[in-house]
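User: I'm preparing a small set of examples for a lab meeting where we compare how different chains pack in three dimensions. I only have the primary sequence for this one, and I'd like the structure in token form so I can line it up with the others. Please keep the answer compact; I'll paste it straight into my notes.
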Amino acid sequence: MTNTAIELAKLLDAQEGKLFSRVETKILTNEEAVERNVRIQMNEFLDQASDDDLIVLFLAGHGVVDDEQELFFMTHEGDLTKPYTGMSVNRFRDLLENRPLNQNALLLLDICHSGAGDGRVVAEDAVQNLTKGTGAVVFASSSGSELSFEDESFGGGHGAFTAALLEGLRGAGRQPRRQSGRI
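Assistant: Understood. Below is the structure token output for the 183-residue chain.
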């Protein structure tokens, strides 16, 4: 998913001076994306945000649910057979809860919920718990115990969710009669 994060960052960077006065991005991929480094880099980077900024967090990779039905984002060192070796999605919720009230947040999750097994956990519950009290908006690629699909046919190897997101940000959602260029 390395190219996925880079492509999204490029599309957001292209909005500097247009939709946003300034755009700052931070990308962690592969061996950089171990839990400790994700936590450090995320906190240090977001500490630079002003109270009125829009924060966009994008997670692409594997999502696994453990026996206690907790959702984990599998960081680089994580073992898919041991969800607890990844990063609890609750950490991201905690981060969103502790930001300034007038700061907007968008969380984009292109991760599987493949560990749910018996279906007791649904992604809608995880999303509601994640956004409860945060004012954040969450877009997730799958629900319940569904898988999120990645394939060469999705924009050259992205997840289906991210391919659609990138397509929309490139303008596929524009209506010809609208002069604003907004989607």
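A couple of notes for your slides: Residues 160-172 form the longest helix (13 residues). The first strand starts at residue 54 and ends at 61.

User: Perfect, thanks.
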